[in-house]
What does this fold into?
Amino acid sequence: MAQTQTQTRAPVVAGPLNTRWHRPALYAFLFVVIAHWAEHIAQAVQIYGLGWPTPRARGVLGLWAPWLVSSEVMHYGYALVMLIGLFALRKGFVGRSKTWWTIALGLQFWHHIEHLLLIIQASTGANLLGRPVPTSVVQLIVPRVELHLFYNFVVFVPMVVAMVLHLRPTREERAGMRCSCAPPVGAAS
It folds into this structure.
């Protein structure tokens, strides 16, 4: 009896999210991702375009709330939101788009691990290899600003490829879709 209840409860959230709410959920998720990108791009412009020192370059939100940029909690929170969003929306994808979405999910999983390592260091005060500040593994060889631009890029690209392929599926992929993201087979795009 308990197994039957669990089986019927699980699709309650996953079902609508990956069927009738898939398109609005994807667009909401994309909005969050683009807003985050804007912050990283603003920070890069401040450093490389305006010549600001890295500690002063805080993106847009960081100009009004500097503690946000220095808070590992905020960075970890975003990495976790990305991981959860990529995982939760994955079941709505099929075929080629699911492959690309899964690539983005795998890359974000690693990005999340790096942020988890940073928040653990910030919380405990025990920094990696005795560094003066919390440091991620790849940050040992790539500066943090550039590294996070790279991480966001390598997650964003397969995510966008997945969304484009999802909205323009082959006939076979469209037949396997449970959401209404793509136009029906035979409809004009």
Remarks:
- The chain has eight helices and no strands.
- Confidence is low (pLDDT under 50) at residues 1-13.
- The first helix runs from residue 2 to 17.
- The chain has one domain: 19-176.
